[in-house]
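Q: What residues go here?
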């Protein structure tokens, strides 16, 4: 029996990041979670838009990711919805990213959370901030595409 190719199932996207940053490089990192957090992710109770990645002591940490606890969470734990989560990457990758982040204008931002082989993965990007005129260009391009799609839809009827 042939094995099906695995598809990554999206949990949450950070659409705000694509609007505010140019992505130079993308990486997939593992993320250290507690049991109640995984259950909440399965229910889709997560917000990624305020998240950012920092380097501390040669390790990467995801700050600002909000995972809202379920009402049915266990009583013997006290869930913290904004707990700092550790990201898992190879040492060489972390060193390379640290060197690039120390350059002016570069930062690490989370792009999305997804399932891969039953594990939660976080896609992060080495990003450079957009200027205000770049953001206006992004809006203009998006509206132009919408106009073309509307015209094509009306024309195809």
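A:
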């Amino acid at each position: 029996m042939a094995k099906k190719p695995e598809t990554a199932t999206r949990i949450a996207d950070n659409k705000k990041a694509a609007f505010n940053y140019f992505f130079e490089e993308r990486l997939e990192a593992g993320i250290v979670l507690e049991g109640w957090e995984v259950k909440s992710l399965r229910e889709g109770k997560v917000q990624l838009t305020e998240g950012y990645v920092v380097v501390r002591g040669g390790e990467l940490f995801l700050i600002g990711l909000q995972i809202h606890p379920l009402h049915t969470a266990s009583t013997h734990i006290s869930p913290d919805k904004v707990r700092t989560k550790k990201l898992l990457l190879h040492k060489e990758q972390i060193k390379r990213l640290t060197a690039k982040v120390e350059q002016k204008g570069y930062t690490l931002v989370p792009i999305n959370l997804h399932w891969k082989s039953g594990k939660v993965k976080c896609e992060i990007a080495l990003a450079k901030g957009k200027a205000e005129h770049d953001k206006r260009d992004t809006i203009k391009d998006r509206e132009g595409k919408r106009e073309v799609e509307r015209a094509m839809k009306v024309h195809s009827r």
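A: Context that may help when evaluating the design: Strands lie at 9-13, 21-31, 46-47, 52-56, 59-63, 66-67, 85-88, 106-116, 119-129. The chain has four helices and nine strands.
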